[in-house]
Amino acid sequence: MNDLSTAPICATAEEAVDRLEALYDAAIAAERMALDRFIADGIPPGATERAAFRYPALHLRWAPDRPPPQTRRAWAKLQVEGDYATTITNPAAFRPYLLQQLQPLMAEYGAELRVFPSDQEIPYPYVLEGGDELARGGVSAAALARHFPVPMLSSVGDEVPDGLWRFRNGVPRPLALFDAARTDYSLRRLQHYTGTDWRSLRPWILLTNYQRYIGQFVDWALRELADPGSSYSHLVLPGGAEITRVHTPDQAALLVAEAPWQRFQMPAYHLHRKDGEDGITIVNIGVGPSNAKTITDHLAVMRPHCWLMIGHCGGLRQSQEIGDYVLAHGYLRRDRILDALLPPDIPVPALAEVQVALQQAAATVTGEAGEALKRRLRTGTVVSYDDRNWELRFSQERLAINLSRAIAVDMESGTLAAQGYRLRVPYGTLLCVSDKPLHGEIKLPGAATAFYQRAVSEHLAIGIATFGILREQLTALHSRKLRAFDEPPFR
């Protein structure tokens, strides 16, 4: 980082974010102007001009003259005096989040904030607006790479969330889990996988492995938009089309039918609330732990409030019935995909706030309580595999399943919970038993169809109701259970 000695101290958090926006907008405008000129006339930027293509830096200094304040809040906290810094991308879009983090750090700790251009260049793909600029000018990517910043995988990593960052004298501590380059990398991948602009993503995220949940979500969203008293304003579809309150039912149905969701690997739908800062996203992540890790690697940079897995599982107990629910309170991770980053011997705890909210929501939606609810909703360990045909090696897996007391099996839940723990995003799992592979009740086409019609709508409603409960307890939800002893100040 440079320019620290000449950067003025920001009087307020709002001033700091204003400066971030001004510097970022100027850098993007300068790089786009140079790109347009190069595409049109072949004139490359000079060294002085290229020096403007940099992310803004946010620097915090804490030199306490009194004991730190006592707070139960797990984020926006300072524990070690000194300097903290990060780079910021798209500060206007992240403004509410940035203010939420910075205001307590200034008001409660007396931290000093400075904003100035960093040394980190903005890769040119991240400033292209339409994506077809290169085709217009017939300019090759190789030609652009000679004169403009390019994404460097060596500078994009998860060393901070994975605990690999090490303090060195004279180097600021991380202010956030993800810097600008890592964030921009994921924002573009989100658009690629989900088929929607990353700005459409909402902070409450449902993850599912069946398209039928998407259909039920869309139906529910359209009913909300048709209700004058609803707090929701519009629904964003894969491909970017929006359904608002002014659309008739026939118009809305046509937009849904025309949405090109099949073109995208993990199509997403986003229902926005009128406040502009809340709402629900649902993503069909498909099947398997690889997809689960891929999408959550990228969703995490948005700093969502919570992601919930609502999908299907195989029941492992004779007493379970098709259509029963499984509320995971533990995970036997046989998915293997995160073993190098979060070894299997590291416990992934259930989050009490999420567990209680899921159970309360289930009681409300089903209308059942006490023993009646316990018969339908069982709490226990879920085993997640990387092999859909795990039954073919049951003789090898039998002992682990018995020792873990697992009650259900799937392919994504363990990965999603481990990713939530690793990337500090609250998580939870509520599965629905669709078959019982150890007891001869397999998922036959006819039975599956009846099951889907009966169970999916109720299951989805429980997930949505859970978010309604958690929305009222954000401070507790973003708990200390997700944070290390040397955690960056930002959530």
**Run of helices and strands:** HHEEHEHHEHEHEEHEEHEEHHEHEHEHH
- Ends distance: 22 Å
Uncertain segments of ≥5 residues (pLDDT<50)? none
Might you state the CATH topology name of the largest domain?
A: Rossmann fold
- The number of strands is 14
- What is the 3D shape? globular
Defining key terms:
glycosidase, 15 helices, alpha/beta, Rossmann fold, AMP_nucleosidase, hydrolase, four-stranded mixed beta sheet, single chain, amp nucleosidase, domain 1
Write the layout of secondary structure elements.
Elements: H1 13-41, H2 47-50, E1 54-62, E2 82-87, H3 95-109, E3 112-121, H4 133-137, H5 141-147, E4 173-174, H6 180-194, E5 204-208, H7 211-226, E6 232-236, E7 242-244, H8 249-258, E8 268-273, E9 279-284, H9 289-299, E10 306-315, E11 325-334, H10 352-366, H11 370-376, E12 377-385, H12 394-404, E13 406-410, H13 413-423, E14 427-435, H14 445-470, H15 474-477
Parallel strand pairs: 2-4, 5-9, 5-10, 10-14, 11-12, 12-13
Antiparallel strand pairs: 1-2, 1-3, 6-7, 6-8, 8-9, 10-13, 11-14
Helix pairs in contact: 6-9, 7-14, 9-13, 10-14
Protein architecture, described:
It is a single chain. This protein has 491 residues and is of the alpha/beta class. The protein has 2 domains: 174 residues, AMP nucleoside phosphorylase, N-terminal domain (amp nucleosidase, domain 1, 2-Layer Sandwich), CATH 3.30.1730; 292 residues, Rossmann fold. Helices cover 38% and strands 19% of the residues. It contains 15 helices and 14 strands. The longest helix has 29 residues. The model has no long low-confidence stretch (mean pLDDT 93).
